[in-house]
Each structure stands twice: as structure tokens, then as C-alpha cells.
Specification:
By secondary structure, this protein is of the alpha+beta class. Helix content is 22%, strand content 33%. Strands 16-17-18-26-21-24 form a 6-stranded antiparallel β-sheet. A 5-stranded mixed β-barrel has the order 5-8-6-7-9. β16 and β17 form a beta hairpin.
Amino acid sequence: MKSIILAGGSGSRLWPLSRDMYPKQLLKFDDDGSLLQKTFRRLMTFSKPSSIVTVTNVMHYPNIKLHLNSIDKSNIVLGEPIGRNTAPAIATALEYFRQKFDSDDVVLIVPSDHLIKDIEAFNKTVESGKILAEQGYIVTFGIKPSYPETGYGYIKTEMPLPVGHKVERFVEKPDLETAKQYLASGNYFWNSGIFMGKISVFMQEFKKYVPHIYEEVQKLDFTNDTKIQYGIYEHMESISIDYAIMEKSDKVALVELLSDWNDLGSWQSIYNVEKKDENGNVLIGKTVVDNVKNSLIYSQKEIVAASGLEDIILVETEDAIMACKMNESQSVKHLYEKLKASASDTTKLHKTVFRPWGYYTCLNGGDGYLTKTICVLPHQKLSVQSHNHRSEHWVVLEGTALVLLDGKEYNVYAGDSIDIPLGSKHSLQNPHDDELKIIEVQKGDYISEDDIIRYEDCYGRA
């Protein structure tokens, strides 16, 4: 079986933990890895790592690749040059498979941010769905509703099949009263966003219902690499797979998902799956509470103290605090959109940003300057690069830095410093067994991560 992971979302309802440049599929809620890594390992039950294609936005590509390479380096990641929703993403991955494998192979399509713990039950459901897929159906996996959720789409079923049911129609996210009616009827399921079918059947439906997308993906060439050409991708309509195919096709069947399932699309969903104390609280990080009930309190850095609260969500990160009522957690997306409209940096990046070579933390910044701490992991190195708008000053705190500067090498020891002039070609490297930590002071007329010209890079970003 082939598999596709959709990893292009941002997870705005999990702000401030999820950001534009560090979306929710990269978040870790336990010691078993990120949501993306859990998804990849789950799919390895059915697919070889080289037969799992992950589709993501090109700006997330380095972090996505880093997470997956830690499991198996033969994974395939396709970077969308521009966001075009799930239908073009799926069509592109299907075209990759069509060029590499047999078109009658079955493909399983999953989002990257679902939490599924009962792997045995999940596997059993997939095997049931495969029976229908091999008969020419496009299979969707539905979840029996346990409460009137307004944040999910629904699927209405009709006549039963030997396995599962024929689908009558897909339904948009309902209001509360409508969701209660769906729950009472018994023949509505939550739309999990998990699909399965033959590559050839999916492509036939693309050709039938969204021919412009089908025609464009035919122009992609994956003979020698996995690059998606911008000039082709930009012409595709931005549309979801539900609107493009699932709501129109007469070949759609539903199999009930037997395992647990949570798409962790809101802070309330995090609360629902986490272990609770005797007062019904989920307490993560450094927290102190008194007379608090049925609440989620998350502290990333500072101590969060709360008293006399009930049914609330309180989240603290190193640069933001968010609070809301438990039943209003879907509205966090509106806060995120307001912050984004005001050009707040808190929607883009955390103060601590992870890179393939290590991480950096922004300490302070202002008009024309920015101060960071940078940690380079053992035997890792930053790209050879230059900047058009800023100079840099590095002070080594721990370890020994190997600095490449305009063709010369310098060893810079703890307590020493070095200047990187504007426009100079340079690289910071750590060839040693201990971590390298420095303070970097940037000064210039434009301070941004896009002021980087890369010449050489061992992580494929040049």
C-alpha cells in the first residue's frame, strides 16, 4: 500500500503553542514524538518508508524533513511552492505515485495531526477499508459522534455495503442545534479526513470533477527529483478534496473507524485526551492551582498560578498568554486572525525556533537590531551564507566555534567574539562533541530571516 500524509496546515486554534512556522503537526504532547512522527510510524505498518509521501508547504519543508529523517531517511517530502488546499496536494502526490508505481495500487491518505493510540483497531479498520478500495470505491473513515461537536464536518450514510456503508452526502460544520440532531439520528459520522482508494480511481475522479487540476498535475515531472514547479502549481484552483471530489463522486463509501481518534484541533480536544487530576484538571508545566476545577492550564516557561477557576483554558508560552472558556476553545482561531491582521510576530514564530542544526532563541529586538542565543548541536553546521542588510557580532558562551569568514577559518573559544561584516560570506560550525552556544547581535536597516543568501547547505536548503 502507498500512503500520503497531508502536512500543510498551521493549527491556528492551538495558538499560542502552534505558529505559522511551527504548526501543530510538529508539536509534542508526550515522549513518543511529534504528531507527524506518530503518523509516519503508524503508516509504516502498511507502507515502506519510501512509499510514504508527505506534502507540506515549502516553508515547513526543513522541519518536516528533520522530523521524518529521524525515523527513516528514505521518506519522500513534496514541498508546495504555494498553498492550494488539499485537492491539489493530494493530486500531486498521486501523480508522483503514478509515475513511480502501479496505478492500481491502493493509497491511504491521512492528515498529519491526528492522535490515534489504539493502533491495532486502526489497522483493522484500514484492512476493512482496503476491501472496498480494491473494488473501486473511494473510502472515507467516519467516527461515530460521542457529543454534538460543531468543529467537525459530518457524513451522512445510506444503504449498507458488505463492509461499511454507501455515503449519501457530506455536511459542513453545523451549529450546535443541528449537531444535536445529527447525534440523535444515528446515521451521521464525523468526517475524519482519512481516505483510501486506488491511485487510478482517484485520478479518474480528478479528471471527471476537477479537470483543470488533473491537467496541471500531468505536467509535473518527478523523474529525477521531488520538486514541484511553481509555474505549474500556481495555476491550480485552491480547493479541498471534499469540495473537489468527495461531495460529487458516486463512488464514496464509509467505514467506521474502530480506534480512538482525535484531530487535536482545539485546546478542548487536548483537554479531552490528557490525564486529569482528582478535580478534573489537566496541568502541564510549572503550575500552582487552588480551588480550580475541570480546566486546562499549560505553562511553557513561567510559573502559572490560578485560583477559583472552573471550565477554563489558560496557556502560557515564552511570549504570549491565552485564556478562554473551555467551551469557547474554537474561538481561539479568531484571536489568531486578529493578531495576524495586526502583524503580530506571535503568529509566526516562537521565541525559540528549531532548525536542523539546533535552535535559536530571540532575546530582545527593536528598530534595527535583534539579539539571539544560538545553540549548534555537536558536529552540525549552519549554511554558508551572507546578508544584504545586516552585520552580526558573535560571542561564544560555551564550546568552541569554527567560523568560516570570506574564505578563512577561525577558531573562536568561550569568552571570545568575532564580527561578521555586512555582505561577508560566512558559516558557523560546531565540529566538536559538545554543544556550541553563542550570543548573536544583529544590526542593520532590515532584520528578518528572509535576509539570507545561501551558497552551500548540508540540509538541502541552498
